[in-house]
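Final report, closing paragraph on structural work. Over the funding period we assembled a curated collection of sequence-structure pairs, and we close with a single example.
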Amino acid sequence: MEKNIILAGVGGQGILSIAAVIDWAALDAGLNIRQAEVHGMSQRGGAVQSHLRISDRELFADLIAHGTADLILSVEPLESLRYLPWLAPEGHVVTSTDPFVNVQGYPPVERIIKALRSAVQPLLVPAEQLAREAGSARASNMVMLGAAAPFTGLEPERLEAGIEALFGSKGAQIVEINIRAFRKGLTLSNANLTTS
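Its predicted structure, as stored:
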């Protein structure tokens, strides 16, 4: 088993938390992980991306080559377009439909979605709405992780255990909200897989 995952978004959207949960779940499953440096963290609203590789064999490279990513998990729709060159032919794009307008001339979301659909069949996730339904808009990153879960090669139960490990020190209510958010994303993804 080997999965190459690109996490994309902007600073402040919880990319590091998504990476931490996936890392925890992969290690708990006895898998090897390599994660490239996350760029853009120093600037809230700046572009952030991380290359995350998971395998049952030893991994030697941190970076994912063009055309080899199994999954692009983007918490910002415009950022998902930026990383399409890394996507493998059979890869998946899971992206939030909620824009983070951080540049002048940010294109209309409809144009971004149209461009994505002309290249791939993305799973489009109304992350903020689902996170609010789960109890907090701040949990939208866990909605995105749930929506991407079927493409990670990791069991949802392990990812939930990773969420508990990551947020446990913040109290049971925070853990519960984040797990609910994760499950909302997972439900959306499973429903999409059933109908496609």
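The chain has one domain: 2-195. Residues 150 and 193 are 9 Å apart (CA to CA). We thank the funder for supporting this effort.
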